[in-house]
Amino acid sequence: xxxxxxxxxxxxxxxxxxxxxxxxxxxxxxxxxxxxxxxxxxxxxxxxxxxxxxxxxxxxxxxxxxxxxxxxxxxxxxxxxxxxxxxxxxxxxx
Amino acid sequence: xxxxxxxxxxxxxxxxxxxxxxxxxxxxxxxxxxxxxxxxxxxxxxxxxxxxxxxxxxxxxxxxxxxxxxxxxxxxxxxxxxxxxxxxxxxxxxxxxxxxxxxxxxxxxxxxxx
Lengths: 94, 114
Hints:
The complex is a heterodimer of chains A (94) and B (114). Chain A is mainly alpha-helical and 94 residues long. In chain A, 81% of the residues lie in helices and 0% in strands. The model of chain A has no long low-confidence stretch (mean pLDDT 87). Chain B has three helices and no strands.
């Protein structure tokens, strides 16, 4: 069972590295917001796995709460992005 | 049930969930466009989070954890499409550049919102 937890944590680490690559490179703000959604999912998974390894049930509640709160973060960033002015000049506003 | 089946279910759920999150991250690297990336991320990360949240419940069962996880996942499955739809609409209004082979644009300038 510990071997599977190690395998899953390693996989999540690789996923975290790839997501950070896109987070640093992402050409637009919208890419970074989508990656933020993925980052909260990865953090939720890591907390959920660590709660089994370290026998602390509080970490599982933290995972559930992160899973619930990530929607608020993404929705708020999307609302901010929608209210932002268009960047390029010459593009008429809708 | 014995302990072996519990750990077997935990192993299946944990590895499948983490592999789905890896697929989401890989899609965010490889896809050429914001909208395709967002499709990959929102769908795969929802399923991966669901699997990873159910894994400890399967490993050490209790009705409290099962109920909490069930309602959290119900909210997640309701809210993740809403969040990605909001983000996609905001990105479309911001005129985020699209892939050059995009075929269909049903919300173009002719029938734009009033």
